[in-house]
Model the fold of this input.
Amino acid sequence: MTILQCFGNVYFKTLVSFFFIIGIQNNCFSQLINSNFGLRQKMGLSLNHEMSNGSFNGFDLQQHHTNVHAFLPLLIKVDTTTSKPKVAILKAEYTFRRTKNSFSENDLDPFPTNFYANSLALSFTHTIGYPFFLNYSARFTYSGDYGSYNPLHFTASTYLIYSVNKTLKIGAGLVFQQSGSDFPRFLFIPYVDWRINEDWFIDLTSPVRFLFGRNFGKQKVTQLALGSYLEFITRYAFNAQEINQVYESTDIAVGLDFRTQLHNKLYFNAFVGNNVYKHINFISEESDFITKSNLGLNVKVGLSLNLE
Done:
């Protein structure tokens, strides 16, 4: 048997085991790693479009981001046959992002009108001794005009999670962001995954999301929440006017997050909020330029196909 055949057999058995676990032990499984009744993506595809704007020194900027995400479990092992469950979950996420920039009141565009990024993230969660879990994640993003000026961006995080009971998990984590701006490289992030009851929940389970909301309907497939989305660093390397430069943007938006089931495993997602903080940093071989905007609309609309 060749190495590829061996890998294919192992991977196929992993997926079969994944669907077997979901079908046979769905309640226990969801209590361990799914706080919001299937509305959060763990395996599948999603497509969304985001629009945000802000006023800066010398120009107004409107940005359109189109994102394509693919989520895939590489290894899932969940043992819920005892009073002390054991979990080992390895997941991968691929993202393609296109950013289009529109400028106003500016004769010379400060950076390109189009950016492209490819991103691969890996995360691993495992039990270190029930009720304690550890989660590690790393993200590698290759973005810009794919020139020679360091277009690779790295992000990493780790969490220690304590399962208080079947409805509450708490913890804390450390996030590292590769950054050349004055935004902190290391961030301490709390972790809260609390299903207060069948309707209400609090979700602070990643460095880019906070949700406090409610599930609606008999099957709880509609969700409305007050949400905060943090895009700590969006980084692109490019060459402008024969000078190698790096563009970095930090966005924090607060608003209403809505999602509902359209048909079977197809969901509609929307977010309407305000950029309460937007920070753009230019790094070049000659000088650095930093500008901030505290105002700006942020809208996200998309579809997701949950295959879990």
